[in-house]
Amino acid sequence: MSAALQNLVNQPYKHGFVTDIESYVAPKGLNEETIRLISAKKDEPEWLLNFRLEAFQKWLTMTEPHWQNVKYPKIDFQAISYYAAPKPKNKLASMDEVDPELLRTFEKLGVPMHERAALAGVAVDVIFDSVSVATTYKEKLAEVGIIFCSISEAVHNHPELVRQYLGTVVPVGDNFFAALNSAVFTDGSFCYIPKGVKCPMDLSTYFRINTQDSGQFERTLIIAEEGASVSYLEGCTAPQFDTNQLHAAVVELVALDHADIKYSTVQNWYAGDENGVGGIYNFVTKRGLAKGINSRISWTQVETGSAITWKYPSCILRGDNSIGEFYSVAVTNHHQQADTGTKMIHIGKNTRSTIISKGISAGKSNSSYRGLVRIAPTAENARNFSQCDSMLVGDQSGAHTFPYIQVRNNSAKVEHEASTSKIGEDQLFYLAQRGIDAEEAVSMIVNGFCKEVFQQLPMEFAVEATKLLSFKLENSVG
Amino acid sequence: MNINQNPIILNVDNLHASIQDTEILKGINLTVRSGEIHAIMGLNGSGKSTFAKVLAGHPDYHVTQGSIQYEQQDLLELSAEERAQAGVFLAFQYPIEIPGVANSQFLRLAYNTVQAKRGKEELDPLEFDDFVREKMKLLEMKPDFLDRSVNEGFSGGEKKRNEILQMALLEPKLGILDETDSGLDIDALKIVAKGVNHLHNTDNAIILITHYQRLLDHIVPDFVHVMEAGRIIKTGGKELALELETHGYDWIHNDQKRAAGAST
Hints:
The complex is a heterodimer of chains A (478) and B (264). With 478 residues, chain A is of the alpha/beta class. Chain A has helices at residues 2-7, 32-41, 46-61, 100-108, 113-120, 138-143, 151-157, 159-165, 176-184, 425-432, 438-449, 451-454, 459-472; strands at 23-25, 84-86, 123-128, 131-135, 147-150, 189-193, 203-208, 219-224, 229-237, 245-247, 250-255, 260-268, 280-290, 296-303, 308-311, 314-317, 323-332, 337-346, 352-361, 366-375, 383-392, 398-407, 413-422. In chain A, the strands form three sheets. In chain A, strands 5, 6, 8, 10, 11, 13, 15, 16, 18, 20 and 22 form an eleven-stranded mixed beta sheet that branches. In chain A, strands 4-3-7-9-12-14-17-19-21-23 form a ten-stranded mixed beta sheet. In chain A, strands 1-2 form a two-stranded antiparallel ribbon. In chain A, helix 2 (32-41) runs antiparallel to helix 3 (46-61), helix 3 packs antiparallel against helix 9 (176-184) and helix 10 (425-432) packs across helix 11 (438-449). Chain A starts with a helix and ends in a 6-residue tail after the last helix. The model of chain A is unreliable at 1-12, 88-93, 112-124, 127-135, 207-215 and 237-242 (pLDDT under 50). By secondary structure, chain B is an alpha/beta fold. In chain B, helix 6 links the parallel strand 9 (174-178) and strand 10 (205-210). In chain B, helix 5 packs parallel to helix 6. The chains are: A alpha/beta (478), B alpha/beta (264). Chains A and B meet through helix 10 and helix 11 of A and helix 2, strand 7, helix 3 and strand 8 of B.
């Protein structure tokens, strides 16, 4: 039976292909010159160059952290090219002008952009390598005062907003990879929801790494003003390469009084082949600041890809009565490693946080949940509930849980539940006896296991996530 | 015993089966024709449940000798899901829980998979909902049953009723009920028995595995087999179950000794 389990997870990466588009690639290596080159290429104001240089100086003093429960060869930061951009042929006035090759790529990924935009009512800010190529629905959003554009555009068109918030949630010297990102980020998304505005549609960005050996350093900044709300979707796929690719993004969210930001991710970076060769290193810093009273930050993530995933989308609950949520599914297979979780920092009174983490490990993979719940002395009546469930597929995978709880206020209530289960041969036999084959059975069991998280995803994303999980676990049972 | 010349559904010949090199079944012979109900009785550890699992294709058991013919096919050539699709149904002694999966979703997937394999019409969620609710009435099940996770938090009786509901949906040619009566109170037993009797017809057959006579008051068998140490040691009509109930299993040994003594 476990042989059948194994067959199920071994399908080749279906999105592994390279799009043949002319690219400008900066010379490899990182020094002040590289940073000045990036800044100049992007025609940036001086304050941003200084921001980058400050980050770079901090980065030089820092050492790469190794406390996480993952193993990988040493990264040579001088062997990475820090800037790659498709050469623009001319200014794009409409979708029709987008490089057809690029559109075909998205179609192969099953993300027909215009169809998605039109049918699903999703505005897609497409990031291809590091530079935004096409943005849709911008006008419709502009009617209600929402700004949704690439961060490069925002730097030029809304410098005051970017300057006010950039680096306020994740400071330039926050950690090794955040400092690196702050120094060399090339593009990403910017989203601003003005006071009292409920964003009328889910905002979505599809990221894609395309140039071999190009590091990806996305920067995302989302601001919800007083009483505003937004649901933001991030999805990733990457082509198949033999060399490892570093992805070190920074995402900052700021929610003011009564504001609500929901950030959902479906991550499917190339995970390496079945022997663990290749694959993306995904070292991301994601943090939301629930700055205002009654504000809410909600992270939902479905992590299926990457050779190594290392990320902790976090909430700083500063406003009184603010709410932080983290819903996560992490699937690992073959030789994948994931060390992921969250940090909930309770500062304001009556702050509440919920953590639901589901880890699924198949093949020879390892998955760790690592989470911190910190209740500051100021956080009267803070509440946290954490639930960490792990599911093992086969008998060569591992699951680990590292909860950290720091309580400095006696009125706090913190609950932690954890469980580990195994896809039982009994379950598979039961379903087989009802005519259901192993592949569908695993899919059903795993999706049932993840239900509490999938319920948090916007509808069409939940459907994709369900399919993605089934796809990822194909041939893992036998 | 009645005389039945209906087609043979199942023919088990000298079946030996092992789990992890321990032989459990040591030469079972059994012929089941359509329209028949067979009861298999015996003490714990006699091999009754193993026999049921081997028929259903449980991967932990290995057939080392003998054959199973089912509907002119070699049953041992088929995987567990193929057997289910071909109409072999096992009502589990301990139905398995699948957290987070709604019963309705599970039932519909099972139903549609089997329908598709049999070249019959599949039902969309709305059609299936009507269909399954009709079947649930037979077993006096509440509608909220459909929304709950498969067998999770079900009482013993609810689990067993859920098994019979699945049998009603999948319309097996050969239904094997593994101690479906265990853990049921008398009311639930009657409901389950009513359901099974309703599903039984001249085109299918049922094998009941049980310790107790009381199930057989409600589902009347054509044959009663007594298993011991991996073999069927005695076969009779429905009255055999009553005799067992009265005299206990030792009675068979004594009976056989007497018979053996008489012949020497």
